[in-house]
Every structure is written in C-alpha cells, then in structure tokens.
Prior knowledge:
Elements: E1 7-11, H1 18-27, E2 33-35, E3 39-40, E4 55-56, H2 59-67, E5 71-77, E6 80-85, H3 86-94, E7 98-102, H4 105-114, E8 119-124, H5 128-138, H6 143-157, E9 165-168, H7 172-189, H8 195-201
Parallel strand pairs: 1-7, 1-8, 2-7, 3-4, 8-9
Antiparallel strand pairs: 3-6, 5-6
The protein binds guanosine-5'-diphosphate and adenosine-5'-diphosphate.
Function: Essential for recycling GMP and indirectly, cGMP.
Subcellular location: Cytoplasm
Main location: cytoplasm
Amino acid sequence: MKERGLLIVLSGPSGVGKGTVRKELFSQEDTSFEYSISMTTRKPREGEVDGIDYFFKSREEFEELISQNKLLEWAEYVGNYYGTPIDYVEKTLSEGKDVFLEIEVQGALQVRNAFPEGLFIFLSPPSLSELKNRIVTRGTETEELINNRMKMAKEEIVMMDAYDYVVENDHVKLACERIKAIVIAEHCRRERVAPRYKKILEVE
Ligand SMILES: Nc1nc2c(ncn2[C@@H]2O[C@H](COP(=O)(O)OP(=O)(O)O)[C@@H](O)[C@H]2O)c(=O)[nH]1
Ligand SMILES: Nc1ncnc2c1ncn2[C@@H]1O[C@H](COP(=O)(O)OP(=O)(O)O)[C@@H](O)[C@H]1O
C-alpha cells in the first residue's frame, strides 16, 4: 500500500502574511506539496479567480456542503464562511502526496482533532504593531474591520502553543525556507523520505 502523504497546516492571525508566504512557496520549484484550494462565501477581490484562489460559493451552497459533510473543517470568519473540501485532501494524501492547507486558527484546531498526525505550523508576526501595519497597508479592509481583525489576532496569538512549530514571518523568503526545512525534517523524523528526495534515491 502506498504511504500516505503528510498534511501540512499553516495558520496564524489575519494579516500575518499566510497568503503571501503560501503564494511564494508555491511559486518555488522545489516546493513539493499540493495546495488545497478552499471554499469561501467571501466575494472575489480584484484579480482573484474562481478555482485558483478559492472556490467562490453562495451561503446556501456552502451550507449544503456542510450538511453533506463535504468539508474537513470550516469556520465563519469576519462574516464569511471558509472551508476545506475533504475529498481533495483524502485523495491527495492517499496518493502519497503532501497536502498544504493555509487556514485561520479555528479551522486549524478542527483539523488537529480530525488529523492529529498532521504537521501544524503557526506563522507569527515579528510584533503586534508590525501586524497592524501589514493589515493597514494591504488596504483591503475598512477601519472597523481592521480593529476587528486586530482584536481577533490577539486571541489567535495565544493559541500558538497548540502548534508543532512557530515560524516568524519577518521576511517572506526566509519564512518559506523555514517551512520547507520543517517539512523535510518532519519526514525524516517520521522515517519517511521527503518526496523531493525520492528521485535522488531512484536507481537506474
Ligand atoms: N478555516 C479556514 N480558513 C480559511 C480557509 N481558507 C482561507 N482561510 C482563512 O480565512 C482568512 C481570511 O482569508 P481571506 O478573506 O482570503 O483574507 P486574508 O487571507 O486575510 O487576506 C485567512 O486567515 C485565511 O487563512 C479554509 O478553508 N478554512
Ligand atoms: N514578511 C513580510 N514583510 C512585510 N510585509 C509582509 C510580509 N508578509 C506579508 N506582508 C504583507 O502583509 C499584508 C498581509 O499579508 P497576507 O498574506 O494578506 O496575510 P494573511 O493571509 O495572513 O491575512 C500584505 O500587504 C502583504 O504584502
């Protein structure tokens, strides 16, 4: 039977840079895990594409997916639903590939219960003031939403103890290197060879 892949969960407070780090990771050639595209009821932002950034759904469609148990986890976050399609995760792990989720902290805790063997990485800001800077400079939120997100961020940062690793997002490329190093180390610790090294071991 094929060895199951590793479920990698990257989480952390809003505005810390999860999306930015994830996009950088997946633009790099030596990233050997598969990204699970989430479902959301949030409206697409400028430049976002359905099926690439998210699967954009109506609230009715999303609630239908919840009732059909099609989501590995879901959360309501700042007025919108977000969730991870379970079929993609199961299929990809069973093919022996690592799956990468980039999700907020309530969802990450649900995944921890369902997949205690997953690898949980908390992305942390260098400081709270830098976190606020990032949310403000992104410019996608109103002042009320910024204050909401900062309030949530303080509650979310307390949860970092529940994770296997904390990675500081001081510089995006450095954060990516740390995440890749953790994944390789974790494969070794679990006595499996990371997919990117398997081809080195193939004998002609
Ligand atoms: N629980 C959960 N959170 C998600 C999922 N997909 C994205 N998120 C999180 O939802 C939050 C809001 O995402 P988004 O609206 O794209 O804004 P941004 O990432 O803060 O720019 C972020 O913390 C995402 O990491 C998901 O499938 N499940
Ligand atoms: N290491 C970093 N240094 C400076 N700015 C960053 C860094 N990482 C992300 N940012 C910026 O912070 C803002 C929030 O990043 P984003 O990826 O949307 O966060 P999240 O997905 O965690 O909500 C964006 O404007 C992004 O360009």
